[in-house]
Amino acid sequence: MNNPKIKFTIKNLGEITAELYPEKAPKTVENFLSLVESGFFTGLIFHRVINGFMIQGGGFDEAFTQKEAKSIKGEFMANGFMSNDLRHTRGVLSMARTMDPNSASSQFFIMHRNAPHLDGQYAGFGMVVEGIDVVDKIANVQTGSRGWYDDVPRVPVVIEKVEVVTE
């Protein structure tokens, strides 16, 4: 069975294609694909960008209005989900969450560089297979503060669409 692939189209920057791993995080992949298929991510932004660490998106639009989604159980080792051994290396997709291990919903991050301290603490569920140069472009945008938030791109990095790649 082939792992599903998704493609992010980022306004003015290019495309990122990622392979998803349902064998590592089945409910996470199922949730993410349902959000993709519903068009949830269209017009949202990468709202947290830390060069040398990760880029985070999937929760806010350009006006910085939060878009809510249903939370799911965190599929990572520290939360008792032992089959997810995906490491947080460059290019890995993972679910963002609050301190509550079962708070992941729509926000995700893509690793810009390796971050072993996240291994087993967050639900990794995919890997960039094309477009890591676009991840680098996003990681290199200028950032600043916006309200309570730090590391916000000064010029919005907009997700034009996310789609399932059919081969």
- Average predicted local confidence, pLDDT: 96
What overall form do the CA principal axes indicate? globular
Poorly predicted ranges (pLDDT <50, ≥5 residues)?
none
Radius of gyration: 15 Å
Mind summarizing the main beta sheet? Answer: 8 strands, antiparallel, barrel
CATH top level? Mainly Beta
Q: How many angstroms does the end-to-end distance come to?
A: 13 Å
Share in helix: 10-25%
CATH topological fold name:
Cyclophilin
Q: So how many helices? A: 2
CATH architecture heading: Beta Barrel
Could you give the order of strands across the largest sheet?
Answer: 1-2-7-5-6-4-3-10
In words, what does this structure look like?
This protein is mostly beta strands and 167 residues long. The protein has one domain: Cyclophilin-like (Cyclophilin). Helix content is 13%, strand content 37%. Strand 3 and strand 4 (54-61) form a beta hairpin.
Top keywords for this entry?
167 residues, two-stranded antiparallel sheet, single chain, mainly beta, globular, Cyclophilin
